[in-house]
Specification:
The chain is built from nine helices and 21 strands. By secondary structure, the chain is of the alpha+beta class. The termini are far apart. The structure holds zinc ion.
């Protein structure tokens, strides 16, 4: 049987700091000592009261329950009893991050919110990124306020990870769903292995995927390229194999045949490729570097091509950038034609 996960202690202690006695069953290996010595010590009887720590002239320390004489009495304390420990965020956040597919989770503190960090983004495909927030907030009211603030700042769906499900009341849940946020307790995502390490749960990937499936845009065109998560334009190869056909691949993988209509570049009435497609063909002729004399004439076409590519390949960045140094448009991807392919520009009257 798995023991009850210890994460709830993270939201019980103010500032997630405390002496060993405060941390109780929280695994010692996930704690890091600070330079602070506590001025109060939890009373041994578990009544929730704290002893005041008094240092005598001979250096001995004594904890005294303020409820004396009816309280818990007093006891001698060693210096080591009073060392304040904090959790090793790196270890905990890395395990959570791994469940979201992050290779290196960060600890970016969020302004104006206590005990709240962005550890990275969940990037299920292409440029679709959703922030992953971890908070140790243990009070429901503060949590409601926090989610509201996050929603106005982030303006897109996000995840919030909390040490325990007990803070996720139905009111908190309501506010979250109105803010397009998904809440998870740590125990939904991470667990302690039999060796005592923190690891992501094997089913976490599915849980996360199911929770966020509605966040990805619905495909509104018949063709959509399987752009891998975190992909950049630099990994793409566009290779024309005929006048109306090209093969797109990403890092020598995911080969797809692409026709003008796949990119929305075929005129529905004339059935001929549009000038956007012609623009791509022209880029082949100049190895992806098109010098431009009158930028105002070419720009609208270039913009339309960029927009179409960003849409189909679901990437945010511009695939064709303007280089003012070289006065030319430069593709961020490689564009060329296959050996022995001839491209025709017959009937083509320029890009204006
Ligand atoms: Zn006491």
């Amino acid at each position: 049987m798995m023991r009850k996960p210890p994460w709830h202690t993270l939201s019980l202690l103010s500032g997630a700091k405390g002496v060993k006695a405060d941390w109780r069953d929280f695994p010692e290996r996930f704690l890091t000592p600070t330079n602070e010595l506590a001025k109060a010590f939890p009373c041994p009887k578990g009544r929730g009261c704290y002893m005041d720590v008094v240092t005598h002239k001979d250096g001995t320390r004594v904890g005294l329950c303020p409820d004396a004489p009816n309280g818990c009495g007093k006891r001698i304390l060693e210096k080591t009893d009073l060392i304040v420990y904090q959790p090793n965020l790196n270890v905990i956040f890395s395990a959570i991050g791994a469940a979201f597919g992050m290779t290196n989770a960060t600890q970016t503190k969020l302004d104006g919110l206590t005990q709240c960090w962005q550890i990275g983004d969940y990037n299920p495909a292409a440029s679709h990124r959703f922030p992953v927030i971890v908070s140790f907030e243990g009070k429901t009211q503060s949590l409601e306020r926090m989610i509201g603030i996050l929603a106005t700042r982030i303006e897109k769906p996000f995840f919030v990870l909390l040490p325990t499900a007990s803070t996720i009341t139905s009111t908190v849940q309501d506010i979250a769903s109105r803010s397009s946020a998904k809440l998870f307790a740590f125990e939904d995502i991470i667990e302690i292995s039999s060796k005592g390490d923190i690891q992501s749960r094997t089913d976490a990937v599915n849980v996360i995927q199911a929770a966020s499936s509605g966040w990805l845009p619905v495909k509104d065109c018949a063709f959509s390229y399987p752009t891998p998560a975190g992909a950049e334009w630099g990994g793409f190869l566009f290779e024309f194999t005929a006048d109306e056909k090209l093969t797109v691949s990403y890092k020598k993988d995911n080969f797809k045949q692409v026709c003008p209509e796949d990119l929305g570049m075929r005129n529905k009435h004339t059935k001929k490729p549009t000038k956007l497609w012609a623009f791509l063909k022209m880029l082949v002729q100049v190895n992806g570097q098109m010098s431009v004399h009158d930028i105002e004439k070419v720009k609208p076409t270039k913009q339309a091509v960029s927009k179409a590519l960003k849409h189909v390949f679901q990437l945010d960045s511009d695939p064709i950038e303007w280089s003012s140094k070289n006065s030319q448009y430069e593709t961020q991807f490689v564009i060329r034609k296959a050996a022995n392919t001839k491209l025709s520009f017959e009937g083509f009257s320029g890009l204006e």
